[in-house]
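Shipment paperwork, digital attachment
Item: protein structure file
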Amino acid sequence: EEAAHRRDFTVNALFYDPSNETVIDYHNGVRDLHAKKLVMIGQPARRYQEDPVRMLRAVRLAAKLGFEIDEDTKKPIRSHAHLLKKEPPARLFDELLKLLMSGHAYACLKKLREEGLARGVFPLLDAVMDDKGGEDAFLKLSLDSTDARLRADKPISVGFLLATLLWRQVAQGWQRRCEAGEKSLPALLDAISDVENEQDNDFAIPRRFSVTMREIWTLQARFDSRTGGRPYRFLEQPRFRAAYDFLALRSEAGEVPSALVEWWERFQRADGDECERLIAEAKE
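Attachment content:
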């Protein structure tokens, strides 16, 4: 009974006795389960003060399970959101990854916005969440792809996932610089530096992920170089496949022509003569 009382929500405070095959329910969890309702055990405001991360768990579980957050459980969240800023960045980063790898990532992000946790709590997400509630086609495609990989029990690259989260910021900076007359690659590198500096000041991304993220972004400028020996050298890049998958997502979102993705798909599979023909075609 003491263990049940320490749980966050009634629906995850259920115990099972295998000796007589009965469910032991101290907090009406079965009732809330049937009602698809997430109810905090104890006084919600006090429980959030004890551990502010409970607010994030409420959002994640509600979005993942398709539950409604009980009104008494929901009410204090907006007014207690500031408590999350006092949590260690590493702990918040771990919670963010749980949200993004819940199998219902976009639903979790939308729920964060609905409950007032999207802005000012996760600096990483401030660049992602649109205050107007607008839908980012590229982000939705990438998160849906992540969800699909999780359902298929395929591995997930955290660096790739973070690269998709912050791409809108990078892409906007890249476009502005190109329109101002900068060359494509230097413009992209400057845009990347701006985004990285902003994140480092507020919410440091572990280096093992940020290195992958930067490489995927940087390589996007190289897909336009399809003459001479450049395509061959590009294929030898260790991150080529990740960068290509990223390009394919950009194409699906309407950012780059599908013909560019198709050319690289054919080039990867072609033999020597076919590669040369494709290069000649690109040059024309």
